Amino acid sequence: MPPAVVEISSDAPVGTPTAAIPEFDTPQPNTRPNDATFVDASATSLPAVEVDNRRTLTIAYLLPPDGSAFLSASQTVANGLVAASKTSARPATILTVTAGAGGSVDEQIDAAVMSGADVVVGPLQRDLVDALATRTSLPIPVVALNAVPEKSTTAPQNLIMMSMSTESEAEYIARLAVQALPEHTERGSAPKIALLTTNGVWETRICSAYERVLREKLVDYEVFVVSTGELPALQKQLEPSLSAEDEAEFQQRIAALHAEKPADGAAARRQKSRIRAIESERRAKVATAEPPFASALLAMDAQTAGLVRNRLPQRMRIWASSVTNPGDPRTSSSATALAYDLDNLVFTECPLLVRYDAEGFEARFATAMPYSLSAKRLFALGVDAYEMARQWASHRHNIQYYGETGALTLNRDVSAVVARVPRTVVVKSGMLVEVPAKELAVPGDMPKIALPEPPVAPAPLPEAGTTVETPSRPAVTSILIRTEDVPADLPPSPPVARPAVPAPVSGSLSAPVIDRAETLPMPSTSVETIAPETTGTEVSPASFETDTDAASEADETPISY
């Protein structure tokens, strides 16, 4: 049954309630999040649990009222939900329930129930999700598109909450940064982390998430509020320093050269050149020395991060959330420039944003790819909400699969919040490379990242007049036909003689043999021959004349020349 999108209003509910959703005989194991093996949600084969194999699943999606600040974002999520349904092996019927003027989310849910929905997806607004989490019960399974973690254990049993929280991404990348810290520095002290942020609202929230993790892990850190006018001072604060022994050695060598008395101008120039060489050697050693902070956690956009990254030490490991994503270098020249500026940056992101180009996206979801990064993330949320709703409608308490927003895990017996583990992406040589987190959470310096193999370009066609060497034909020379080389009175090609075929013996059971004409007809229409593109000329030979008598005797089967 093809999917359908039906628009209804919570002011005027329609339809009748469906039958109760059956329980499943096979109980799901009580596993903690991330314990079980994930199922790839992009695969064509889905888990066997269904609402009812005899009918189509009906999903009600809650839209905010017209004029709401969340309407555009909600519609983008709805696009992902519908695209996932249309490209699914078992499409669903999608009902969009729009809130009325001054209406409540309870009225929307009631309208969805009366319209025969099996499961509700939405709302997107956090305050409405908070109101649902406060209730004691819900009449239908609900997949909320935002999360209230503090109410994850007290939410009604029919409610689960999934979100694209940037703060949860920040906490995740901060834990990876802590795992990658060495046990101690080269000088024997405990490693520290620098938090680089700006004064923006989102950046401040991300930095607070970093701090929560670092305090929990008992890691020393320092916060630096970055402004473009103070970048030289920031570079000085984060610059590595030499050990006392190495610094003393360089100073002694320079002092010894200064103590020499050059005999003439040439000797003085040689003395200055030797001093500059020693100073250059010192700067090179400082650049490769261990920095005062083993890692930096960035809470800023990609443009600001591009300015800051060049001021940071070479050996400092750089981590960030999806806010610092530079964009797709394959489609944007500005993203390419930012990618080179942010070399060796590790950030979190939805798989959808780094795995698909425009052509691959349209082939996968049968719709055009959203333009902005935020719209792509919301679309990915809608895609995963479809799979989560499909399984939650069956009252599965343990759900795990790889989606377009990351690895999703739900253990409803423990929490109503769907845990999301995003993908880790490394910016390397102007490219975005997906790298497993376990390969990055290695103590010490940044591990080597293998770049993907570039696509092999097809071999160009040989130009006219060149000789091509092949195993079967060692010397094949292409022929260049020019207009002046074709005679004006070019005669037609001679007919092709065919051997006579003996007639079958009388009484034979073999198929009859049709005696074809001894000559084949020539084409009666003009044939236009186009020379290779390198010449830019056309050859228009005269029309070939056909023997009409021979043509009439020929078989009517089309013959290709």
Name the features.
flat, single chain, six-stranded parallel beta sheet, seven-stranded mixed beta sheet, about 550 residues, alpha/beta
Task: Explain the overall architecture.
The chain has 561 residues and is an alpha/beta fold. Helix content is 31%, strand content 15%. The protein has helices spanning 71-86, 105-114, 126-134, 166-179, 201-216, 231-238, 244-259, 265-287, 302-309, 333-341, 351-355, 358-365, 373-392, 437-440, 548-553; strands at residues 4-9, 39-40, 58-63, 93-98, 119-121, 142-144, 159-161, 192-197, 220-225, 295-299, 317-320, 345-349, 398-402, 407-411, 419-421, 423-428, 431-434, 467-468, 476-477, 529-530, 538-539. Strands 9-8-10-11-12-16-17 form a seven-stranded mixed beta sheet. Strands 1-4-3-5-6-7 form a six-stranded parallel beta sheet, sandwiched between helices. Strand 13 and strand 14 (407-411) form a beta hairpin. 31% of the residues are buried.
Total helical elements: 15
- Cα end-to-end separation: 48 Å
Biggest beta sheet summary: 7 strands, mixed
Shape: flat
Uncertain residue ranges: 9-51, 507-561
Q: Would you tell me the overall average pLDDT?
A: 80
> What structural class should be given to the helix and strand makeup?
alpha/beta
Strand content: 15-25%
Question: Helix proportion of residues, in percent?
Answer: 25-40%
